[in-house]
Model the fold of this input.
Amino acid sequence: MRGRFGLSELEPAFLAYERILSLSERVEVLPGPDTAFPAYYSGGDAVTARDGRELRGHMRVNRGASNHALGNDEIVAKYMDTATTAVSAARGTAA
Done:
């Protein structure tokens, strides 16, 4: 819905949006046969579009795992996304 998922998308105000509530009513969570857990936090999804198309994605090795490491820019962005839920951006970048 926002093209991302972080801590701010878990805030009660965001979870109360009508579009989020509507989507959540149509979600079913099932165990996947291609999991690499507990070595990795694998995950996948399948979405059926209104026109009947089925879109699928799967990530066997989660982002941030040793052999699927985040780049420096991604680490900084993730830090700032998390830090700015509690402090200002200026405070988050203060040395």
